[in-house]
C-alpha cells in the first residue's frame, strides 16, 4: 500500500472525541483531505533521515480543564508536516484538572496507550473494564472494530498528567481488548526497560503493531545505546524530563527526536533524565 493511501485510510478511522467542560465535539476527520508526511526532513533536521521536534513547536490547546500539547496534528491543531512518524499517529501531553476528564467517546482501529506522569486516571469502557491507572502504570487498548471509553482525573484536589499515544494497527477490525500493568521503576535505572511490544509473551503490554516502547531513568553523564529490533523501523525519542545529547542534538524536557534508516542510536544524559523511546514501522 502506498504511504499516502495508508495515512488516509488511517485518518478516516479515527473517531470523534467528546469531552467534559467547554471543549466542543471534535473530529479527526476534518484533517483527512490534506495529508502530510511528518517523517520527511524539517528545517531543524541535520540530515535526510532525522527530524527534530522542539517542545515549544508542538500544537497547544488549553480548555481550562484540559491543557494539551500535541506532537502531531490532532483535533483543531493541523500541521501538514506533523501528521505522524511512521505508525505513530498521536502523542499528546495532557494535564487534566482535578475532578475533570473525558466523557464517554468512541475509538476504532487504533492502538491507544496511556502513560501517567503524575496522578491517577479513572478509566471505564464498553468492555466492562473499570480501572485506576496510576503513575508507574501503562495501559493499552486495541480499539479494533470499536470501543467506547471515558477517562477522568481520580483526584478532586490535584491535576493528573499523562501521555496519550495512538498507533496505527497492522490488523483492522480485531476484537477490542484492554490491558494494564504496573511497572518496576527500578528496572529502568540507567538502562532501557521494555514496556510494550508486539508479543503477549514479551515484557510489557502488547499491541497489534510491530512496535516497541522503552523507558529509562538516567543519572547524569550516562551513555546508552539502543539497537533497533527491525532495521526498517524508525525511532522517536521523547524527553519526559531532563537533558540529553542524541546524535549531535541537545534535547530538553518535552523535546523529541526521530530517526530512521539506522541500526542503532546513541545518547548521553547531561542531567538526570526520564526518556520514552518508541520504535515503529515507517511504512
Question: What labels describe this entry?
Answer:
283 residues, 1 helix, single chain, disordered N terminus, seven-stranded antiparallel sheet, seven-stranded mixed sheet
Provide a descriptive summary of the structure in words.
The structure is a single chain. With 283 residues, the chain is mainly β. The protein contains one helix and 22 strands. The chain has one helix at residues 3-12; strands at 50-53, 59-62, 66-70, 88-96, 101-107, 111-118, 121-125, 130-133, 137-142, 147-153, 160-167, 177-182, 193-197, 205-206, 212-218, 223-227, 233-241, 244-246, 249-251, 256-260, 264-269, 273-281. A hairpin with a 4-residue loop joins strand 7 (121-125) and strand 8 (130-133).
Provide a brief overview of the structure:
The protein is mostly beta strands and 283 residues long. It has one helix at residues 3-12; strands at residues 50-53, 59-62, 66-70, 88-96, 101-107, 111-118, 121-125, 130-133, 137-142, 147-153, 160-167, 177-182, 193-197, 205-206, 212-218, 223-227, 233-241, 244-246, 249-251, 256-260, 264-269, 273-281.
N-C termini distance: 9 Å
Report the structural category: mainly beta
**Secondary structure: number of strands:** 22
Principal-axes geometry comes out as globular
**Helix share bin:** under 10%
Architecture blueprint of SSEs:
Elements: H1 3-12, E1 50-53, E2 59-62, E3 66-70, E4 88-96, E5 101-107, E6 111-118, E7 121-125, E8 130-133, E9 137-142, E10 147-153, E11 160-167, E12 177-182, E13 193-197, E14 205-206, E15 212-218, E16 223-227, E17 233-241, E18 244-246, E19 249-251, E20 256-260, E21 264-269, E22 273-281
Parallel strand pairs: 13-14
Antiparallel strand pairs: 1-20, 2-3, 3-4, 4-11, 5-10, 6-9, 6-11, 7-8, 7-10, 9-12, 13-15, 15-22, 16-21, 17-20, 17-22, 18-19, 18-21
Amino acid at each position: 500500500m502506498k504511504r499516502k493511501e495508508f495515512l488516509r485510510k488511517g485518518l478516516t478511522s479515527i473517531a470523534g472525541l467528546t469531552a467534559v467542560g467547554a471543549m466542543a465535539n471534535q473530529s479527526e476527520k476534518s484533517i483527512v483531505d490534506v495529508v502530510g508526511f511528518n517523517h520527511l526532513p524539517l528545517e531543524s533536521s541535520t540530515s535526510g533521515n532525522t527530524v527534530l521536534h522542539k517542545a515549544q513547536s508542538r500544537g497547544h490547546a488549553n480548555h481550562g480543564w484540559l491543557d494539551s500539547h500535541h506532537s502531531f496534528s490532532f483535533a483543531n491543531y493541523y500541521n501538514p508536516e506533523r501528521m505522524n512518524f511512521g505508525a505513530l499517529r498521536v502523542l499528546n501531553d495532557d494535564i487534566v484538572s482535578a475532578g475533570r476528564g473525558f466523557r464517554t467517546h468512541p475509538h476504532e482501529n487504533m492502538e491507544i496507550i496511556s502513560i501517567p506522569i503524575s496522578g491517577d486516571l479513572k478509566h471505564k469502557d464498553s468492555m466492562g473494564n473499570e480501572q485506576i491507572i496510576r503513575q508507574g502504570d501503562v495501559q493499552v487498548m486495541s480499539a479494533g472494530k470499536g470501543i467506547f471509553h471515558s477517562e477522568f482525573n481520580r483526584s478532586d484536589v490535584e491535576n493528573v498528567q499523562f501521555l496519550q499515544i495512538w498507533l496505527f494497527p497492522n490488523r483492522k477490525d480485531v476484537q477490542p481488548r484492554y490491558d494494564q500493568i504496573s511497572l518496576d521503576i527500578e528496572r529502568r535505572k540507567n538502562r532501557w526497560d521494555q514496556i510494550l511490544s508486539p508479543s503477549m509473551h514479551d515484557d510489557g503490554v502488547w499491541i497489534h503493531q510491530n512496535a516497541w516502547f522503552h523507558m529509562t531513568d538516567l543519572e547524569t553523564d550516562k551513555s546508552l545505546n539502543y539497537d533497533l529490533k527491525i532495521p526498517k523501523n524508525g525511532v522517536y525519542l521523547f524527553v519526559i524530563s531532563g537533558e540529553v545529547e542524541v546524535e549531535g542534538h541537545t534535547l530538553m524536557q518535552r523535546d523529541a527526536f526521530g530517526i530512521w534508516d539506522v541500526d542503532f542510536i546513541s545518547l548521553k544524559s547531561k542531567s538526570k533524565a526520564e526518556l520514552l523511546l518508541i520504535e515503529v514501522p515507517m511504512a
